Structures are given as structure tokens and as C-alpha cells.
């Protein structure tokens, strides 16, 4: 698991809490139940209204994936594909059936099985590329969902502040309550901005980045399987695969050389 998202969100909120403390405020003053219910409940609600129930159910899964996703090391994947290419060239394609038990990547395993089963090369490429495309579309929708939430939450925060100010104006006859009521009203706007810029939009960007890397690795697997099926030279296979590595996922030795 890459800890960047957890560390980033923790650092962002930590900075806010530190600011409150340094200015002599109380962190507890921003943790008011009504504004939190409005911001998170309202944001999820309007996001649901723009989609289907299945989309709403996936919101939690997308968030968990953004914080816990684990991408296969690209250099390890290249090395595994090259070893498979060497064995296929030496012993034949059917020899890979025994080697498949050591393959953990489900997409690579599926492609190898199709190749071993004698699937036509063009049809094999079409099947795998269609799966890559489907993944890209799913990831694009996931990123858009949280981008939409990031767009909705500040406006919902303003709604909460407006309601809070209405409540404050209704209590003009009790001036001792006005300070607390007005401060509470602006907590909704604060959480609208915090949730958008420190949770929803970062998750959207993380999903885009994860999709870029994972889809790139899948495309690399497609190229590897096609070359294995064609009986290509393993060294040429390695060069082709490394040229297809997505930005930021190059093997460590290549980065040092650069």
C-alpha cells in the first residue's frame, strides 16, 4: 500500500488543527454534529441523485481503494513476463500451463490461459484490450464521482451557513447566544471547503493516478502475452515492455540511470 494519500490527508488536517491551536481556538469547536451531517449526508445525497443506487454503494469501495490500493511493482511484472517468454520459447506455449500457478496477477493469468487455449492472436488482443478499456471507463467514473462531490460540498456548506444565520437572526432578542450561533453557522462552510479540498478532490486525483498506472501495466501485459504467443525473443520482449511502462513506474535502476 502506498501511504501517500493517508499521509497527505493527515498532514492537511493536521495543519488546520495546528492553526486553530496557535490562534487560541478549540479543535472541538469545529466538530459540530449538525454541520457534519449536512455536509457529508447532503453531499452523498446529491451525488446519489445524479446516478444509480449501485453507484452510491460503490462510493465507500472507491474511497477504500484510493487509500489502500497496491500496485504490482512494474519491474517484477516485466521480469515475470520475460521469464514466461523464455520458457515458452524454450519448451513451447503449453509449458506455461504449469508455470501459471506461480502467476498472481489475475489479468496476466487470464491472458496466458487464453493464449494456451489457442485463441487467435487478433481475438486475444481484442479481448484483453476490451478489458483494459472497461477498466479505464470504470476508473474514470470513480474519479468523476469524487470530483462531483468536491464540487457539491462547498455549496452545501453555504446552505448550512445560511440556515445557521437564519437561526441566529431568530435569536436577536438573546444577544448572549448570537456569538455562538454565528460561529456555528460558519462551521458548515468550513467543512464544505475542508471536505472538498482535503478529501473528495484528492481522492479523485488519486483514482486518476492509480488508473493511469494500473491501465499502463495492463497494456504492458497485453503486449507481453502477444509477444509470448508469437514466440518473440525474450530480450526484445523485455525492451518492448520497459518502453511501455507508465510514467512514474519505471524500474529503480532505470531511474538512477536517468
UniProtKB/TrEMBL annotation:
Residues 6-86 form the Motility protein A N-terminal domain. It holds the Pfam family MotA_N. It is a multi-pass membrane protein. One of its GO terms (biological process) is bacterial-type flagellum-dependent swarming motility. Residues 101-220 form the MotA/TolQ/ExbB proton channel domain. It comes from the Bacteria. It is found in: Cell membrane. Keywords: Cell membrane, Chemotaxis, Flagellar rotation, Hydrogen ion transport, Ion transport, Membrane, Transmembrane, Transmembrane helix, Transport. One of its GO terms (cellular component) is plasma membrane. The chain crosses the membrane at residues 7-25, 31-53, 145-166, 178-201. Belongs to the MotA family. This is Motility protein A. It comes from Virgisporangium aliadipatigenens.
